[in-house]
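Reminder: ligand-aware prediction takes two inputs, not one.
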Amino acid sequence: MLRKDKGEKTMLNKKSVDDINVKGQRVLVRCDFNVPLIDGKITDENRLVAALPTIKKLVADGGKIILCSHLGKPKGEPKPELSLAPVAVRLSELLGQEVKFAADPEVVGPNAKAAVEAMKDGEIVLLENTRYRAEETKNGEAFSKELASLCDVFVNDAFGTAHRAHCSNVGVTQYVDTAVVGYLMQKEIDFLGNAVNNPERPFVAILGGAKVSSKISVIENLLEKVDTLIIGGGMAYTFAKAQGGTVGDSLLEADYCEYALNMIKKADEKGVKLLLPVDNIIADDFSNDANTQVVACGAIPDGWQGLDIGPETAKLYAEAVKEAKTVVWNGPMGCFEMPNFAAGTEAVAKALAETDAVTIIGGGDSAAAVNQLGYGDKMTHISTGGGASLEFLEGKELPGVAAANDK
Ligand code: AMP
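Here is what comes back for the chain with adenosine monophosphate:
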């Protein structure tokens, strides 16, 4: 308990780029430039655009800006198709200023060192993909020191990797005096941190997605904090089975039935309203073209599987959201990738779009669903990190955030 409290406090009180003076300093900025590439072309540049405010601020303040990031999984060796070179080209266009690419198979090899050495105040250099180095994901000392040797100040603006301890977001901070967070990271900490630790009530959390087993810590942590916990998606069938229902061929984690019952009991003891589906859309095949019908929860015949919440459940969940002042959502209500099983997820997205509550969408599938269904700009905050936002909701300390200096 003590550890968690301590972690939450320090996670929420980090120095940012607004608290330092970088004039004439070499500033290493860990960004999240892990963009999708097809034939060397960037197909979604949201992550580049999201990084611009921090970069512009540091340029305006007269720092020498050295950007770094990982891209894909080159597995510790140079892979030309995963080079960050195309990112330098596009960033130059977006910033209206040259971003010099420091091509270097060692990332911090002779080329990168020479490029940094030649920098003037306000100039920008982008290093090669940090995962060209095998030590990166092992948080190895040598590469951490090499990165630190390039800079006077370190800025972490990559929330997507904040739940991992790697050289370029954690190791490097051991060898620099000043390590702060960027604007993007600060925004994530502010929204997720405030929602979870200081929410305006009623506070409603909606959890969906495939498996109970991957959301255990989230359920447990949120039960301590929320007024209402809504459960949908594949994991609802384990709850239905635990309560004595039949779930046919639906996703079921039989080993977690007892856990599900414990959570129902815990919610009751804590006075948390726990909402589970009352009906489901079921299908005779895992396919968009399958035959479907709507049945009551826990009444799914053999040969059928639940692929979405039913219309009564969608209404119930939308009503619960209407009363909320803060809503956190992680995980779709059904197999939204198939249009015939997207209605439940869409109903929840619509309810969130229409409420005045603060609405926070965890990254990954929920973010994809909200954007795909066209409600993205109606949400208060859509997290840029799937795994990282989930760990935030679990109440864990994120190493990438914890490593920054406290205020
Ligand atoms: P997660 O990564 O745990 O958030 O799971 C997201 C995935 O869960 C999405 O790809 C959904 O298609 C899937 N999912 C949601 N509901 C169901 C369901 N009823 N049956 C099978 N998969 C589901």
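The pocket of adenosine monophosphate is lined by residues 209-211, 214, 233-234, 251, 306-307, 331-332, 334-335, 337, 365 (CB under 6 Å). The domain at 14-184 is CATH 3.40.50.1260 (Rossmann fold). We will return to this case in the review session.
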